[in-house]
């Protein structure tokens, strides 16, 4: 007997109902334990919010417009009705469940409803189809067979890749371990080797975890670096251990898998999210194809021309393009810069110390078309400061400090790698709009658009992509520079929700325009030119440092301050026609 989507929904609703990780694990473990192999694969996959296995490059390419149109047709609804329910529920899946159960025109239950295998087959068909109308017909057919609102809700949740159950990968790993009496460490290790947790679950069910071996083209989680605030903090953390410093490049972290030679060569590029993007970077594929052997490299894709790393803004012009045209490739060339090697010609190197891996990387890529990021030994605060300053002089983000004796620890941010980078000064900004959040914040105003005062002549009355220019409050006008939701506590969100509800000037769906009254101190990584905001700028990775209850709106920063920071040497996103300074030591690349 195959498992139904209704059973899957009931189990995941139960997991979502508790905030305790151990209870979530127990609920899922009990469910997984009773499933046959084929259903176990699908249950683990869908519980992770994936329509396909993590090593499967296929995508549904279906958005809310298609799903919404299918639901409206099935239930004979007006668009405004579904939109209203979606706003009230704070999440599309729950809105569909609500309208499904109350609609008089919903389709009659069809036996046991959808099975997990029905859903997987439907996803296969949707991914296969190209034209929007064909995809719409396949989505319509899938939802039409849902027997209950909960089935329809979870079908939508899986399509959109977010179940909102609070079940992260660690919980799923622990649930698989508990279901089949396997050590959690072994589950995690085998997942590193073969990539897909669903296949790990099947091996655990068979009691055959020891048979797993590493295979190329199964991406692994990236090793991460823990932040350090100052060189002194970093030196104290290193505690005299042997570390090396590498420049922290501003690009796209990438994992390169390559096998075969010549016409038989195969190259795959995976991002931090384990998405495959080699079609987006044919220039990088050609670069990698010149290297002999089978291997897995870790490194960074950067905009790159004539041996120089270019500003990040040029890389942005390549993002989101599956098959970039020749003109874009010529104008915005990219290259892969390597800093680690995890597999080479049949040998897994992750457990080797960094120094040994580096020797393998030098042997493979030294003197080739693939630059290797330079390393400089560091122990003391003075050495760390020197390395950091040299990196910033090269207009890079900062440095990564790596334990020379450490293994490669996928998915971990611990005591082996550290990052040190200087943040730009914060900006005091005025909130101009507040938006309801998602999940547990669906009834709170938790996302805030913020602005600075325009003391420059331009853009004082223009509308932009983020809506009309905010209202004038005094002789200057506010112009938006970004939006943030992280950095405030639940208590502060509740306080701000009450205040913004009171000072709302207009409402559009989930967004409230508010009187300019609240000042937030905003931290960020970069300032970039942007047509999205009337200010002409956007803050990269903005986060709320604190609420400045002590400041009046008039005390907030001016647009001239934003321009000043954009033009500063610290803002490495700013384009420059000058070549980056090249100090004698350390150089950016080795093996060139």
Can you characterise this structure?
This protein has 20 helices and 22 strands. Strands 13, 14, 15, 16, 17, 18 and 21 form a 7-stranded antiparallel sheet that branches. Strands 3, 4, 5, 6, 7 and 8 form a 6-stranded antiparallel sheet that branches. Strand 13 (427-436) and strand 14 form a beta hairpin. It is globular. Mean pLDDT is 87; it is low at 458-474 and 573-586.
Question: What's the arrangement of secondary structure elements?
Answer:
Elements (H helix, E strand, L loop, with lengths): L4 H12 L4 H13 L3 H11 L16 H12 L3 H11 L2 H11 L13 H13 L3 H13 L4 H12 L8 H11 L4 H11 L2 H9 L20 E3 L2 H8 L4 E6 L3 E8 L6 E5 L11 H8 L5 E11 L2 E2 L2 H5 L9 H6 L2 E11 L2 E2 L5 H12 L6 E2 L2 E3 L2 H13 L4 E6 L13 E5 L5 E10 L8 E10 L22 E8 L5 H13 L1 E5 L2 E4 L4 E5 L2 E4 L7 E4 L2 E5 L11 H9 L21 E2 L2
Parallel strand pairs: 1-12
Antiparallel strand pairs: 2-10, 2-11, 3-4, 3-5, 5-6, 5-7, 7-8, 9-22, 11-12, 13-14, 13-17, 13-18, 14-15, 16-17, 18-21, 19-20
Helix pairs in contact: 1-2, 1-9, 2-10, 3-12, 4-8, 5-6, 6-9, 7-8, 10-12, 11-12, 13-18
Task: Supply the key terms.
cell division; seven-stranded antiparallel β-sheet; six-stranded antiparallel β-sheet; 3 domains; DNA ligase i, domain 1; 36% helix; DNA repair; 20% strand; alpha+beta; 20 helices; 592 residues; D-amino Acid Aminotransferase, Chain A, domain 1; OB fold (Dihydrolipoamide Acetyltransferase, E2P)
- Secondary-structure class: alpha+beta
CATH fold call of the largest domain: D-amino Acid Aminotransferase, Chain A, domain 1
- Percentage of residues assigned to helices: 25-40%
The average pLDDT is 87
Query: What's the end-to-end separation, in Å?
Result: 60 Å
Question: Which regions contain 5 or more consecutive residues with pLDDT less than 50?
Answer: 458-474, 573-586
CATH architecture identity of the largest domain: 2-Layer Sandwich
| Strand element count | 22
Tally of helical segments: 20
Keywords: ATP-binding, Cell cycle, Cell division, DNA damage, DNA recombination, DNA repair, DNA replication, Ligase, Nucleotide-binding
Protein name: DNA ligase
Catalytic activity: ATP + (deoxyribonucleotide)n-3'-hydroxyl + 5'-phospho-(deoxyribonucleotide)m = (deoxyribonucleotide)n+m + AMP + diphosphate
EC number: 6.5.1.1
């Amino acid at each position: 007997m195959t498992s139904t989507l209704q059973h899957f929904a009931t189990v995941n609703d139960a997991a979502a109902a508790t905030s305790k990780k151990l209870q979530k694990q127990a609920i899922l473990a009990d469910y997984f334990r009773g499933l046959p192999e084929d259903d176990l694969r699908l249950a683990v996959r869908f519980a992770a919010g994936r329509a396909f296995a993590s090593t499967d490059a296929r995508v549904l390419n279906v958005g809310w417009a298609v799903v919404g149109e299918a639901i409206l047709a099935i239930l004979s609804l007006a668009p405004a009705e579904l939109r209203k329910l979606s706003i009230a529920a704070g999440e599309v899946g729950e809105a569909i469940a609500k309208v499904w159960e109350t609609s008089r025109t919903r389709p009659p239950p069809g036996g046991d409803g959808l099975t997990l295998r029905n859903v997987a087959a439907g996803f296969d068909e949707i991914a296969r189809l190209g034209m929007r109308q064909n995809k719409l017909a396949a989505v319509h057919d899938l939802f039409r067979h849902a027997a209950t609102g909960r089935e329809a809700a979870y079908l939508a949740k899986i399509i959109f890749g977010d179940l909102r159950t609070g079940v992260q990968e660690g919980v799923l790993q622990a649930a698989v371990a508990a279901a089949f009496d396997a050590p959690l460490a072994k589950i995690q290790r085998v997942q590193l080797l073969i990539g897909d947790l669903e296949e790990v679950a099947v091996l655990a069910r068979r009691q055959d975890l020891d048979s797993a071996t590493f295979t190329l083209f199964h991406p692994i989680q990236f090793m991460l670096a823990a932040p350090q605030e100052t060189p002194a903090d970093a030196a104290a953390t290193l505690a005299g251990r042997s570390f090396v410093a590498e420049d922290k490049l501003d690009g796209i972290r990438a994992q390169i898998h390559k096998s075969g030679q010549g016409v038989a060569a195969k190259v795959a590029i995976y991002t931090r999210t384990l998405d495959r993007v080699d079609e987006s970077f044919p220039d990088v594929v050609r670069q990698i194809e010149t290297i002999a052997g089978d291997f897995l490299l870790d490194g960074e894709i950067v905009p790159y021309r004539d041996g120089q790393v270019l500003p990040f803004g040029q890389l942005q012009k390549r993002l989101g393009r599956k098959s970039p045209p020749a003109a874009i490739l010529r104008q915005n060339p990219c290259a892969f810069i390597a800093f680690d090697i995890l597999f080479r010609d049949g040998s897994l190197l992750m457990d080797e110390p960094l120094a040994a891996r580096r020797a393998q990387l030098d042997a493979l890529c030294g003197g080739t078309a693939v630059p290797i990021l330079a390393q400089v030994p560091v122990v003391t605060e003075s050495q760390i400061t020197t390395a950091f300053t040299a990196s910033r002089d090269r207009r890079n983000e900062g440095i990564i400090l790596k334990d020379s004796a450490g293994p490669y620890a996928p998915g971990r941010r611990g005591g082996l790698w550290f990052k040190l980078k200087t943040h730009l000064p914060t900006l005091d900004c005025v909130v101009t709009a507040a938006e309801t959040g998602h999940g547990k914040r669906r009834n709170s105003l938790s996302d805030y658009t913020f602005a600075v005062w325009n003391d420059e002549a331009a853009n004082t009355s223009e509308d932009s992509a983020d809506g009309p220019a905010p209202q004038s409050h005094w002789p200057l006008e506010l112009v938006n520079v970004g939006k943030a939701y992280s950095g405030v506590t639940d208590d502060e969100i509740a306080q701000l929700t009450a205040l913004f509800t009171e000072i709302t000037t207009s409402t559009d769906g989930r967004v409230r325009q508010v009187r300019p009254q609240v000042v937030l101190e905003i931290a960020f990584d970069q300032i970039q030119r942007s047509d999205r905001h009337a200010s002409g700028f956007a803050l990269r990775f903005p986060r709320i440092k604190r609420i400045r209850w002590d400041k009046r709106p008039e005390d907030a920063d001016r647009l001239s301050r934003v321009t000043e920071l954009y033009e500063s040497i610290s803002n490495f996103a700013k384009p420059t026609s000058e070549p980056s300074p090249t100090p004698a030591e350390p150089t950016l690349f080795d093996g060139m």
